[in-house]
């Protein structure tokens, strides 16, 4: 059976996707604006040996499958017919049609895939050394690459769009300012920003609120970039970013703590100690703003350790439900005062990042290699779709450490836009 016939049996004739293969076969509409090209039998070996998203990702990242056209468009059209949803009997039938050779062919893993044996040698999940390696894998790709994808803000977290046509920079500014206003930052306060990335929140708090801000990150490249940016902005008296694990911060009695995009790396078993640690870092009356990606509920599957995201993007990443996170914050001593879901904003943020990568594609490939650029193209387009269809969410949760007498220091009714 020709490869095109197998493809058409999986996706149907009306998927809006063109398919062509090295055996000369084609399927789908010849006028489709997206095309999957199977370039060699090695692609079949990857898919046959790991049926589902991992096999397809390996074939694409290694260049044995090409995608012509927009990746998001392709994924959205095929979302309801993902191969992982194909019944086992159909998978077995497809493997029979392909034959035994792809199952026995030796094919190397793409170098972009995390060596799980390497992580295991560094200890249990979320041990300090293993966390450092996981963060290094994702964040120490190339600062120049991130500048192209993220834009001038260098903010690698969900932006907040004040209006539909806001630019990415306007939306990232709005996000940092929303966090600052929820934390009620004022001149002279001290802020701890854990998992600070390239220092966006630290610099925003120092520049616009006169706050003395300390940020910490496990990425050496991020810390070096941030310290240079802080110096160039003339903020060295107020802002600092350190290359260190948040658990090694010795200072305490901060007025506020922001955690923007770190909780996903903490791990379910470590959440109680994580929130307790942050609670102990605050003065009475201090606030924590926790901003992170979540599952939509406790029933939706977590990030699979064997899946594409864990193997190629966020090693050891874990997502919990918003209810679970709020419960852990509450049990650590925080009184929960506000919560909101910003998932549509993350879909819009990712749309901009995908466009930025496409606009700098040739430069990005030259900087980090075609395989790594393809990992990012696939992961960001898939994440955008995930937020749009409510497979993943983005929640901000505000908690306060009460004074001994129970005072929260919160206004009776904060306005909806947190002025």
Automatic annotation (TrEMBL):
One of its GO terms (molecular function) is methyltransferase activity. The keyword Endoplasmic reticulum does not apply. InterPro entries: CFA/CMAS, CMAS, SAM-dependent_MTases_sf. Keywords: Lipid metabolism, Methyltransferase, S-adenosyl-L-methionine, Transferase. GO terms for biological process: lipid biosynthetic process; methylation. Gene3D superfamilies: Vaccinia Virus protein VP39 (3.40.50.150). SUPFAM superfamilies: S-adenosyl-L-methionine-dependent methyltransferases. Pfam families: CMAS (PF02353). Belongs to the CFA/CMAS family. This is Class I SAM-dependent methyltransferase. It comes from Bailinhaonella thermotolerans.
């Amino acid at each position: 059976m020709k490869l095109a016939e197998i493809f058409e049996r999986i996706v149907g004739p009306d998927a809006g996707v063109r398919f062509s293969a090295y055996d000369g076969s084609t399927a789908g509409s010849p006028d489709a604006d997206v095309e999957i090209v199977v370039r060699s039998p090695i692609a079949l070996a990857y898919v046959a040996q790991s049926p589902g998203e991992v096999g397809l990702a390996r074939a694409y990242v290694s260049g044995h499958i090409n995608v012509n056209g927009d990746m998001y468009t392709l994924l959205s059209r095929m979302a309801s017919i993902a191969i992982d949803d194909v019944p086992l009997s159909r998978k077995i039938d497809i493997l029979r049609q392909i034959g035994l050779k792809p199952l026995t062919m030796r094919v190397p893993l793409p170098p972009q895939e995390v060596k799980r044996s390497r992580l295991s040698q560094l200890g249990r999940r979320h041990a300090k050394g293993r966390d450092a390696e996981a963060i290094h894998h994702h964040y120490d790709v190339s600062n120049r690459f991130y500048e192209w994808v993220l834009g001038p803000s260098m903010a690698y977290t969900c932006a907040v769009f004040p209006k539909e046509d806001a630019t990415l920079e306007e939306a990232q500014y709005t996000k940092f300012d929303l966090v600052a206003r929820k934390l009620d930052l004022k001149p002279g306060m001290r802020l701890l920003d854990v998992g600070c990335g390239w220092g966006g929140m630290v610099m925003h708090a120092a520049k616009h609120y006169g706050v003395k801000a300390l940020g910490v990150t496990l990425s050496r490249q991020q810390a070096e970039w941030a310290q240079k940016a802080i110096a160039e902005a003339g903020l060295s008296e107020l802002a600092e970013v350190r290359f260190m694990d948040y658990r090694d911060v010795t200072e305490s009695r901060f007025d506020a703590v922001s955690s923007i995009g770190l909780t996903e790396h903490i791990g379910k078993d470590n959440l109680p100690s994580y929130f307790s640690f942050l609670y102990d870092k605050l003065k009475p009356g201090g606030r924590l703003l926790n901003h992170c990606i979540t599952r939509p509920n406790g029933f939706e599957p977590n990030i699979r350790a064997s899946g594409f995201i864990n193997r190629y993007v966020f090693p050891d990443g874990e997502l919990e439900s918003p209810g679970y996170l709020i419960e852990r914050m509450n049990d650590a001593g925080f009184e929960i005062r506000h919560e909101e879901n910003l998932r549509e904003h993350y879909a819009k943020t990712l749309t901009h990042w995908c466009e930025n990568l496409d606009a700098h594609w040739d430069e990005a490939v030259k900087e980090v290699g075609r395989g790594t650029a393809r990992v990012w193209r696939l992961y960001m387009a898939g994440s955008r779709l995930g937020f749009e269809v409510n497979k993943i969410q983005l929640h901000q949760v505000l908690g306060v450490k009460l004074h001994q007498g129970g005072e929260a220091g919160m206004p009776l009714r904060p306005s909806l836009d947190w002025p």
